[in-house]
Amino acid sequence: MSDYKAEIIAVGTELLLGQIANTNAQWISKQLAENGVNIHFHQVVGDNLARVSQTFLEAQERSDIIIVTGGLGPTDDDLTREAFQMISGLNLVIHEPSLNKIHDYFKKHDSEMTSNNIKQARVFSGAHVLTNQIGMAPGMIVEFKGKSWIFLPGVPSEMMRMFSDDVIPYISERTGQTHLIKSMILRFIGIGEAKLEYELQDLIRKQTNPTIAPLAQQDGLIIRLTVKATSNDEANELLEQCKGQILQRVGDFYVGSDNETVEKKALFMLKQHKKTIAAAESLTGGKFTETLISVPGASEVCKGGIVCYDAEVKRNILGVSLETLQNEGTVSQACAIELAQSILKLLKTDIGISFTGVAGPHTLEGKPAGTVFIAIANKQGKFLVKEHLFTGDREAIRRKSVRKGYDMLFKFLKREH
Question: Which Pfam family name is an example for this entry (predicted)?
Fold first, then answer.
């Protein structure tokens, strides 16, 4: 592997305030890893000249390749150039092709070009200028005291295009890298983190290449496989071999790899079994239906749903019996079953799923927050119902309820076939 140390610096107060997420660093890290370059540091610094220049000075001392995103725009708080000039002493000059492009942009859009836009055309003397194919501000690659500085726009679409077109070829030539690092994400549902690690403990202990890293996330458990290889084909072969060993142990809980989410898996299984579904949702408030219809093609299997938060809606719209509401309550196994059976009849689907419970923070009908009943029923009269007790705040309980609903749906569909 390469001995080159890479660092990513994002410039922008909006990142520190949490107004936008630093997705640029995540994306760049993945691209560099796949090209065998090790990322040693991520930094975010606000729009303050002294702090940006100090951050740049630290990066110059410890890293070989420094990638900076943001701060190349026309306003007074775009200070990336000024900060680097403070530590390097390099002159800034107007890049005429970029200036002409900026003039043409304003002319094309029939709007006035203010003088501060000229700032975007300034580049360091001797820099390799990177053309911005989407926006206005060009990027730059600057060699300074044996270190490579790469300046990119903060706008993700502009940065990604520039990085793919210009930066990756430059870095490959700079490092002479012949290895690559590639990852694969395996997604699981319906199994606890401890159980998953127990089933795979010998594989994890012996891991060398690929490495195996179980991780708990909000939307379920994942295992990240990371491999070092000399070619993409070799990497894929090693990843698939390791994946096969893992699925021999815990394949019953496997959802999919990389972007194959539980929603996509559910859609695939429903299509495969030629089934349609509808949901009656109380505490989840439509979240199950929302996640399912976020997947393209969901209209083929999801007819819709009803948010039945109030007891009167459960009674008058979905027909939950008065006896059940009075004797068992809305937070009950009986209510969940009737909701699932009613929604499939009302919307004429093959399967009905229901969610009812207590999202909190207070108790309801004598049941503590986190008490949730989920039921699934089909046209043939079969049903599956379970009581769960989830922890966390309201949002966490609702999110966990939806995930458990998918887990139960997978099991129900498998049991039917």
Answer: MoCF_biosynth
